Amino acid sequence: MNESDAIDPSRRDALVFGRDLLLGGAAARWAGPSPAQAATANDPQAPVTVKLTLRVNGTAKSLALDTRTTLLDALREHLHLTGTKKGCDHGQCGACTVIAGGRRINACLSLAVMHDGDEITTIEGLGAPGHLHPMQAAFVRHDAYQCGYCTPGQICSSVAMLEELRRGIPSHAGADVAAAPTATPDELRERMSGNICRCGAYSNIIDAIGEVAGVRT
Amino acid sequence: MKFDTPATKNPIDRLAVVGQPVDRIDGPLKTTGTARYAYEHHDAVAHPAYGYVVGAGIAKGTIRSMDLADAKASPGVLAIVTADNAGPLGKGDKNTALLLGGPKIEHYHQAIALVVAESFEQARSAARRIHVDYAREPGAFDLARARDSAVKPGTGKPDSAVGDFDGAFAAAAVKLDATYTTPDQSHAMMEPHASTALWDGDKLVIWTSNQMVAWGVADVAKTLGIPKEKVHLMSPFIGGGFGGKLFVRADAILAALGARAAKRPVKVALPRPLMFNNTTHRPATIQRIRLGATREGKLTAIAHESWSGDLPGGKPETAVDQTRLLYAGANRMTALRLAELDLAEANAMRAPGEAPGLMALEIAIDEMAQKLGIDPIQFRIANDTQVDPEHPERPFSKRRLIDCLNVGAEKFGWKARNPRPASTRDGRWLAGLGVAAAFRNNLVTKSGARVRLGKDGIVTVETDMTDIGTGSYTIIAQTAAEMMGVPLHRVVVRLGDSDYPVSSGSGGQWGGNSSTAGVYAACTKLREAVVAKLGLAGEAEFVDGRVRAGGRDVALADAAKGGELVAEDAMEYGDLAERYQQSTFGAHFVEVRVDAATGETRVKRMLAVCAAGRILNPKTARSQVIGAMTMGVGAALSEHLVVDRNAGFFVNHDLAGYEVPVHADIPHLDVVFLDETDPMSSPMKAKGIAELGICGVAAAVANAIHHATGIRVRDYPITLDKLLDRLPPSTDA
After folding, report:
1. What residue segments make up the domains of chain A, in order of their start?
2. Does the keyword Signal apply (chain A) (predicted)?
3. Same domain membership, residue B511 and residue B464
């Protein structure tokens, strides 16, 4: 791949591949009635809706949501940010991990109305094909994923987790809760254990995170 | 193209792209959340309605009545689909139970209704307002109790016998007769079964998370009673399958029916707590193994019998398959028996047959080696065979089990192991090393592809092959790049669409080798078209975006100057798989620590050595193996669908109760691939790898636990309660 016209090969791959699968910008080919058309104005049992604003990936998004809507479904179904995944909807798998106000949370366990005005960072906010976040690039290099479904959650979780380490938040894996924690492989494994990967990429995920954290795993 | 003679030198052998550890081409999409899965096609479908599935609350019986009034009156409800109003439905060829039950209920959480509403919240809320009156019937839910009623199944090859097992076993100097159990297990893939469906006139357009696009089209059509041509099925990304998405499931059928009823696009995902009892699972087994050997350690008698259960019309878990092929021994028998159980449908999960079969067999081999006082690696080597033991005229195409064991022993430091169980302490931990052989048959199946050479010189591959995390996108791109002599970034791969040629699909570790062989066939045809178009003569070489033949050197893209060139072909197979036994081999090495006080087991080190033909991409192939090793640790230590034998369902039906390994359970994993090609397998000279990786892992863990503690546990998973009362006396280290 030493062609004179070659730019960053990983970026080229992404562009050629992405163009094909993303159908970027094209209008939906099929559509149901829009919610406005569908709403029956005089329905006494109509869901209780609340207006709120989420600051998602640096952009304010105003929404009127059924109060039962989770942060996860607000992101996926209302903002169409489907990078955040629904694996269990019960806080058991971590696929829906996003960063809210600097902390990683399971978006499925949080109602959207609880986040009015909050800063939410999703996988789409970390990087995009061609402009990968260092953690995203490390996941690609280390093949730290297989099916890709837990991957956005693993990446969001790991980015926030390294920040927790920097802030000195202790974990079960540390020998001394009073001492500053370090990014040992066991620390990383302990702190990432809320993110299940059924494909079993754990060994590579820890290698990828370790590389970003600057430690040998 | 037909593959009926062993492969000779071909363009793949250049290995400029194939065989290289390149990053996945879909990596930037997966790591940025821009790969779209079945529930996420907002780009193509705006404002879909939401379907919520209701599962049966009994395991067996009938629905006396279903009161839909409250649910229908719930806000936002557009339609409710039940067996009563869905119209006549067929049953897919690959399904055992109906995907929409009622009035008869065949298993717990069988889908009985779909509520379609404007929003997910409304559909979920209304689903809880469906009132069902059931007439419950007693069912069979306990394999141990049903064992005596098990029968010889009518499909496959339930029995085999060579020589005189009974006589040889009776006469054997050293004998083992032991029974092992493996529990029901769940695929528990991260993406729930999910579909988005809409009707475009009389044509169904459906995105569904499915490993086998053509099977999916056939069974959707059959179930709905429409022609296959009226089904457009797409599955470009799949959030894990492991066999659980080989078949069309309720989400797909109900999304289609819901879309028809609501006259809207509808999307449906199975709620996680519904998945374990609604979909398929790996069934529990009871396995009796008898081994007879000479004092010198030669096996003379091998018997393996397995019992499993399934719904009426179902199939057995083929847990004895590997025992027919793995070790030499003149006198042998195997038998599969199938009991009727009223649990959810039993079916394929990663390495069906071999995975649970080796969980038992490879403990038995370890036990026999211990009885004989022979090192378990040497015992396996002494009983190796280079021919099919049941049909000695059939040699293995390639069989390097001994190399796998020896290379692994060297790399893992096996020599330093004290063979005496419970002999090694590491502080409060009991330390142990275990080994097991890995074996999984190599399957090849017809696979097609279409390849386009565009005016811009871009090569585009289209096939209905799927990528379930295996790396299909990447190895198919590597194959096309190698064949057409272009760099990887000049190849576009389109997968998982029923508009494309029918491929092998993903399952049984046949997908990688078979689908790339199909791409090889299509590229061979495209090369011929290029040569003809350019008017070249003689043997052509495709390198560096150029075509060289007969002293001429032309840009590949020139062949498409006048318009895109398109070639389509499929690879089909002759009888090489009958003449030669094609299998993949490996050896798993595990080091464990068992807490001397609590019996908690931790895996400290693991190594897999694999011999599986040419490795098309060492990076993605290694991922397949470490993933399988991880699932094997789950099988050894924690995974167990617990059956409520009265109510008849799996109790722990979510990801909190069904314990799969997490980060903290898995150390750094090592994998070695032996340098090998298998010309009997395909022009790629590759074989399967994705299932070999799990085969034998759990037994290697079990054997390591035995070595650490001296306790032989024959019932999986090996949880601490099975060790606690037998742990060696504490030295209070």
Report:
1. 47-126, 134-213
2. no
3. yes
Chain A contact probe: residue of B20, B25, B30 with most A CBs at under 10 A: B30
Among residues B32, B626, B453, the alpha carbon closest in space to that of A57 is found at B32
- Asked if the bond preceding B88 is cis, omega within 30° of 0, the reply is no
Q: Is A132 near chain B, with CB under 8 Å? A: yes
* Residue from the list A33, A149, A193 with its beta carbon closest to the beta carbon of B663: A193
Q: Which two tokens stand for residue B56?
A: 């049966």
Exposed/middle/buried for residue B482 (C-beta within 10 Å: 0-12, 13-18, 19+): buried
Interface residue B119 vs chain A (CB under 8 A):
yes
Domain membership of residue B520 as a residue range: 2-35+444-577
As to burial, measured by CB atoms within 10 angstroms (0-12 exposed, 13-18 middle, 19+ buried), residue A27 is: exposed
pLDDT at position B731: 61
Q: What crossing angle do the helices spanning B354-372 and B697-709 adopt, rounded to 10°?
A: 30
Same domain for B588 and B531, yes or no, is: no
Band (pLDDT 50/70/90 cuts) for residue A3 is very low
Chain segment B276-298, per-residue pLDDT in tens: 999 999 999 999 999 999 999 99
Mean pLDDT across the stretch B165-180? 98
Listed in sequence order, the residues at least 6 apart from A103 whose beta carbon sits closer than 8 Å to its beta carbon are: A160
Q: Which of B247, B271, B295 is the last residue of a domain?
A: B271
- pLDDT score of A30: 82
Secondary structure (H, E, C), B616-672: CCHHHHHHHHHHHHHHHHHHHHCCCCCEECCCCEECCCCCCCCCCCCHHHCCCEEEE
Alpha-carbon distance values, B189 to B350, B418, B639, B655 (Å): 11, 39, 13, 10
Domain containing B569 — which CATH number? 3.30.365.10
pLDDT tens per residue across span B553-579: 999 999 999 999 999 999 999 999 999
Does CATH place domain A47-126 in 3.10.120.10?
Answer: no
Query: Most B CBs within 10 Å: which of A1, A10, A19, A30, as the mutation test of the B interface?
Result: A30
Mutating which of A146, A172, A209, A216 best tests the B interface, going by the most B Cβ atoms within 10 A? A146
> Is B42 touching A (CB cutoff 8 A)?
yes
Average pLDDT rounded to a whole number, residues B501-524: 97
CATH fold group of domain A134-213: DNA polymerase; domain 1 (1.10.150)
B469, A146: Cβ pair inside 8 Å? yes
Question: Is the ipTM beyond the 0.90 threshold?
Answer: yes
Domain termination site, one of B271, B302, B325: B271
What is the count of residue pairs from A and B with beta carbons less than 8 Å apart?
296
Residues 6+ apart with CB under 8 A from A176: none
- Verify whether the Cβ–Cβ distance B23 to A84 is below 8 Å: no
Extract the tokens encoding A44: 């006494």
Percent of chain A whose predicted confidence (pLDDT) is above 90: 73
**Type of residue numbered B641:** L
In one-letter notation, the amino acid at residue B617 is N
Q: Catalytic positions of B, please?
A: 691
DSSP B508: T
DSSP annotation of B60 reads S
DSSP calls for B453-489:
E-TTS-EEEE-----SSS-HHHHHHHHHHHHHT--GG
Contact list in A for residue B49 (CB cut-off 8 A) is 32
Total domain count for chain B? 3
Contact in structure between B690 and B470 (CB atoms under 8 Å): yes
Q: How many CB atoms lie within 10 A of CB B154?
A: 9
Mean pLDDT rounded to a whole number for chain B: 97
> What's the gap in Å between the CA of A117 and the closest CA on chain B?
23
Q: Which residue has the higher pLDDT, A146 or A178?
A: A146
CA distances A24 to A15, A19, B301, B331, B552, Å, are: 11, 7, 64, 64, 41
**Amino acid in position B616:** L
